[in-house]
Amino acid sequence: MKTLALEMSTAQGSIAWREGGEALFDGRFAADRKHSGAFFENVQQCLERFGRPEKIIVGLGPGSYAGVRIAIATALGLRSAAKARLAGIPSICALDVETANYCVIGDARRQMFFFAKVESGKLIEGPSLKTAAELEATIGESTLPVYGSEPLPQFQVATLAYPSAGRLLEISGLHSDNIDGALEPIYLREPHITVAKATPGFARTK
């Protein structure tokens, strides 16, 4: 089966293509705001070389809200054009590391952090929000290696590691229950919305 994977949840994006079990394309690139065009360039190169995918796998985070949304929107557009099957997988299940069992931590902003545990490509705990003290205690109780996809100087036990599209494809068979389901980013908390103050002299309309 012609399968395309898209991963954009961290500062390192990636795209992979597999066909008949053979790895034919693995593109990695910077995925910050200054380099967002690299994602579409890699998608275009991949499609020009191999045609339309029959199945698309997307990393759902947690991580960059914008990056994950871009990947999902692209996958939905390609599914519509190619009539491909579609699946979403937590990006943290697909870290490019040698061990199958590990913990993942990350900055959830507003002085909070997230913790998750992965075993053999499946998310078995979290992601859950914790204070720095709570996360330190949780890490101390675990014997598994700890990874993060961004530098966290206050947690020196964590090793930097990124999810990869190739790894998403490797574990996709473990997530067959997600095929053709709804694609939603993994939110760590409810969106924080600030309502603009009303301008004096102007009535707010509904």
Textual characterization of the structure:
- The structure is a single chain.
- By secondary structure, the chain is an alpha/beta fold.
- The protein contains four helices and ten strands, in the order βββαβαββββαββα.
- The strands form two sheets. Strands 3-2-1-4-5 form a five-stranded mixed beta sheet, sandwiched between helices. A five-stranded mixed beta sheet has the order 8-7-6-9-10.
- Strand 6 and strand 7 (112-119) form a beta hairpin.
- The protein is globular and about 50 Å long.
CA distance, first residue to last residue: 50 Å
C-alpha Rg, in Å?
Answer: 19 Å
Name the shape in a single word.
globular
Strand content: 25-35%
Relative helix content? 10-25%
Class by helix and strand content?
A: alpha/beta
Strand order within the widest sheet?
Answer: 3-2-1-4-5
Largest sheet, if any? 5 strands, mixed
Low-confidence stretches: none
Please write the string of helix (H) and strand (E) elements.
EEEHEHEEEEHEEH
Query: What is the averaged pLDDT score?
Result: 90
The total of helices stands at: 4
Q: What is the fold's blueprint, element by element?
A:
Layout: E1 2-7, E2 12-19, E3 22-30, H1 37-50, E4 55-59, H2 65-82, E5 85-89, E6 101-109, E7 112-119, E8 122-130, H3 132-141, E9 146-148, E10 159-160, H4 165-171
Parallel strand pairs: 1-4, 4-5, 6-9, 9-10
Antiparallel strand pairs: 1-2, 2-3, 6-7, 7-8
